[in-house]
Design a protein that fits this description.
This protein is an alpha+beta fold. About 20% of the residues lie in helices and about 30% in strands. The chain contains ten helices and 30 strands.
């Protein structure tokens, strides 16, 4: 260890250059932390401290002398804090994790820091391996700019126990939260379907933090990638939960290795393809040396698909690596999922080698590098220049304090030069997207949204009354297999082999039983989570992530008033642009449904609702009968080869189910209710 530290001192020049600086003011926010009794901050456990954040506002100068002026304090309260990181702990400049507390020193204090959404867990990132002091900040911002969540960030300068510590980034910790990783927080007793399906946050990472390995997967070179639970916490996770989320990765690995692109059991049925594509793009843009093996996060909401991200720990990127340990892996001319180093699990390379996945990867990449788009070289360079200008003063102090290698402007120029070469290389090597350039999409339209229902004596729970209606605005039936709502926070996927007839509508509700009780008709499906009472983006996608329809509604003008007053948003005409608020009205018309998955004259099912035996009769021979739950999961399939069949439903729990019968070459779908 002594020899290792000597190498670090020699090459990075940390030793002998750490200097005492007179620090009085900054153009950035100033964080002041004083631990109780001035104790040193350990790796673990967290110790109590007081924290103040001095911030006068945008483009205003901040002064240490403001620390006792409440008018200029963004935060003034209690925290508990510890050193964080793995390899970075070898650096004299430390990184920290802290929790904001109430004055009782026990209760978490959910609060906003520097304009970020309220929470209690935060990171102070010291960028100790990044001489450019911008790599994490750049990567997280690019990820958000292309539509994926990544930690929000704010540069600041830090003083701890009276010592100036240099330039840091205050950022959000990866955590399940409506404003962070927006998935449900799974509980310890969530071990049955559908509760066991989410939410989860999982990571491929080192185990130096002491957390046990949940499972391991192979790389293409035969190395092992270790997966760790982030949520639920390792000490709280149940065996059924580990088995469930591990099985999602097993299914992904199998589908990817087989090149299976079936919407029912292939790659699109397991993963949210857009999130995996965007994750690869951000990590490959930076040529991250650790991208797929370490700090590689995944998340999954209840009843939702497995999603990649958020991106994290992006300091070994854009040509930077642990040079003092002999590493030099962030190159402009390699794919990081197959360069023989930290390639990650096999499915990454298998996904890239799949023609369909790679086509969409190429299409997305080529969209994002167009003029004005977030990954266009001119756009990125401008963002880097603006950021460098904002932190240049603080960067000079940080260089003086810690003796960082090179010059700040030299390091920034190196990043920009790397990006120019890297973007050209990816564009030349990612392949064609002609096969997926012009995909025919079904004419489905989001045309009704009940996002904030009014309550009544009969229906006191507003959230149970939410619904969204989708209309087939075409002259042909649409197969809804694979079609789902993308993103997180609002989860629904249509069951396989569901047809929606011409000009017909499908209503999906937050509570199918309550919807039927209120409106007298069955909902076409039941979504997970709730609609926002303020504003939400609803994105209807096909299985490969092609956008069929997108609406961002709001409870403010110019959107019609449908906020808790018994009205819902209704599109005036399905041919109008539903992204424009002027094309919507607030309506309280009675809801009717012409969702055409009914049995029709070829089949009779009774009793419905059913408690034990469901009788299925037809005038023609029934070849097969399949039973699905409301989320589209196949529960059983039987060969009948008769005109009559009695389906035993006694061992199924109460709820809504879908029967799919193959009769005389036709597929007939009916919804039933199990009492």
């Amino acid at each position: 260890m002594r020899r290792l530290f000597s190498i670090i001192c020699l090459i990075i020049s940390f030793c002998g250059i750490v200097s005492a600086q007179v620090f009085t003011d900054s153009n950035l926010p100033i964080i002041i932390i004083n631990t109780d009794q001035g104790v040193a901050i350990p790796d673990d456990p967290k110790v109590l401290a007081t924290m103040k954040i001095i911030y006068r506002g945008p483009e205003q100068r901040n002064y240490l002398t403001d620390q006792n002026n409440p008018a200029f304090l963004d935060y003034n309260g209690r925290i508990k804090i510890e050193i964080r990181g793995s390899s970075s702990q070898s650096s004299p400049k430390k990184q920290y994790a802290f929790t904001t507390l109430m004055p009782d020193n026990i209760t978490n204090n959910n609060t906003s820091l520097l304009g970020m959404p309220e929470e209690n867990d935060w990171i102070i990132n010291g960028m100790v391996f990044d001489p450019g002091l911008i790599r994490d900040y750049l990567s997280y911002n690019l990820s958000r700019q292309i539509g994926q969540y990544a930690s929000r960030t704010a540069y600041c300068e830090v003083v701890i126990n009276g010592s100036f510590m240099g330039l840091y980034v205050l950022q959000e910790k990866i955590k399940a939260d409506d404003n962070r990783v927006d998935v449900l927080k799974i509980e310890t007793d969530d071990i049955q379907f559908p509760e066991v399906t989410g939410g989860y946050i999982t990571k491929a990472d080192k185990t130096t933090g002491g957390d046990p390995v949940a499972w391991k997967m192979l790389t293409w070179t035969g190395a092992l990638v270790e997966y760790i639970h982030e949520m639920p916490k390792p000490e709280d996770v149940r065996t059924a939960q580990t088995n469930y989320i591990h099985n999602q990765f097993i299914m992904l690995d199998a589908a990817a290795s087989q090149g299976n692109i079936s919407l029912v059991e292939g790659i699109p049925s397991v993963i949210d393809i857009p999130s995996f594509i965007d994750y690869m793009i951000v990590n490959e843009l930076g040529s991250g040396a650790d991208s797929y093996t370490y700090s590689a996060f995944f998340h999954k909401d209840r009843n939702g698909k497995l999603r990649a991200g958020p991106v994290w720990d992006m300091d070994l990127t854009y040509g930077n690596d642990l040079f003092f340990w002999g590493y030099d892996r962030s190159k402009t001319n390699v794919w990081q999922f197959s360069d023989g180093e930290n390639d990650g699990s096999r499915f990454w390379k298998d996904l890239f080698n799949n023609d369909s996945f790679r086509c969409y990867l190429s299409r997305r990449w080529n969209e994002l590098i167009q003029p004005g788009q977030p990954l266009n070289l001119t756009v990125i360079s401008s963002f880097i220049d603006q950021t460098a200008s904002a932190i240049s003063e603080a960067a000079a102090r940080n260089y003086s304090k810690w003796g960082t290698a090179g010059t700040f402007q030299g390091n920034i120029s190196s990043i920009k030069s790397f990006l120019a070469t890297r973007i050209n290389w990816i564009t030349s090597n990612i392949g064609s997207f002609s096969a997926c350039a012009d995909v025919t999409l079904p004419p489905l339209v989001i045309n009704r949204i009940m996002y904030h229902p009014a309550t009544s004596f009969e229906f006191p729970e507003a959230e149970d009354l939410e619904f969204v209606e989708i209309m087939n605005n075409g002259d042909q039936s649409v197969d809804l297999t694979g079609i789902y709502f993308g993103g997180t926070g609002f989860v629904f996927q249509f069951p396989p082999h569901t047809l929606l007839g011409p000009r017909a509508s499908a209503v999906i509700a937050s509570n199918g039983e309550i919807f039927r009780e209120k409106y007298g008709i069955p909902a076409s499906g039941q979504f997970t989570r709730q609609l926002s009472n303020k504003s939400e983006e609803l994105v209807l996608l096909d299985g490969f992530g092609n956008v069929i329809d997108r609406v961002v509604y709001s409870d403010t003008v110019p959107w019609p008033e449908a906020d808790g007053n018994g009205h819902y948003l209704a599109l005036k005409d399905p041919d109008l642009d539903n992204s424009l608020p002027e094309n919507w009205i607030a309506s309280d018309d009675i809801i009717v449904s012409d969702y055409n998955i009914g049995a029709g004259p070829d089949i009779v099912l009774y009793p419905n609702p059913v408690s034990e035996i469901l009788n299925i009769n037809s005038g023609s021979e029934i070849q097969t009968i399949s039973l699905y739950d409301i989320y589209g999961r196949l529960l059983l399939r039987v060969n009948v080869e008769n005109e009559r069949y009695g389906l035993n439903m006694s061992h199924f729990p109460r709820g809504i189910y879908i029967i799919r019968a193959n009769i005389a070459g036709k597929t007939i779908i009916e919804k039933i209710i199990k009492d």
